[in-house]
Fold this protein.
Amino acid sequence: MKPLVRYAALANYVELTRTLGADPGALLRSTGLDPGGVRSQDRWVPAESVVELLERTASQTGRPDLGLRLAELRRLSHLGPLSLVLREEPDVRSALQVLIRHESMYNEVLHTRVTTADGIASVRIDFDLGTRQTHRQSVDLAVGVLFGLLRGFLGPDWRPLAVCFGHPEPADTTTARRMFPAVVRYDHEFDGVVLYESDLDRPNAMSDPQLRTYVQRVLPPDGSGDKQPRTAARVRELIEMLLPTGRCSIEQIARSMGVDRRTVHRRLASEGATFTAVLDDARADLARHLVEGRRHSFTEVAELLGFASPSNFSRWFRDRFDATPRQWRARSPR
């Protein structure tokens, strides 16, 4: 089975390519990708197609720094539900551990690992495409995104010891020098970022401990042993994101996964699950969190969870938890 990545890997690709004078739709089609699919960030597509797209775009636009320029535009939210969990980890080491353990939720070819020696830590990135195709732009994008994540965890004043690339130094290093406030090494033994090991134990600048318990429910309980995300986990992930948009249906889930609805039902059944059950469980976890949180009115909670009316939500909640939303909120600690 060929490895997949989420369309979120191409976040801001269309806008950037247009500013560089190229036609993003034509380039997407030339690599077998659906131009309309880019708007569905959680749809899975072949990784080799995305890698080829970035290489073709860099060549056609004459911008060998394309991967780095895309990385500059990347935001934590492009990691989907995983971004919620990373933001709430208490320190950088634990955030990286979560990223590594669950990176197959958004990219099946990217493998990140951390090594330490003599007080120095190296966060290394490897690609496993299963082919020998050139992937320099993807490497630049991944290293740039990794640097951005670390800076988000450690704050804007943080400086790494080095940013490393295995490929040769480009003729123009302007973008790299602008992005990285550190030594940039080329022809290096690995792609990644080098920092002091003590930085790994610094507090995560984005963390909010009060939300940590809830957001960890977004992840499967253990992603370390299965590099192919299970269908139920993927469906649950998409439900979490689509419910507040009002577009959470089996048809939309299937489109996001790049299959038809029958395939989703069949794959869920092979795991002993149903779409209705996964949806109901996701709604229950979100409902409990939103009702306990007191930030939203019950009408707003009903809308966020995709109910037609507050009364429908109230009846569903009472059947699920044997209490009305108002009773549940009253019993919850402030």
Summary: The two ends are 49 Å apart (CA to CA). Residues 160 and 195 are 5 Å apart (CA to CA). Confidence is low (pLDDT under 50) at residues 222-229.
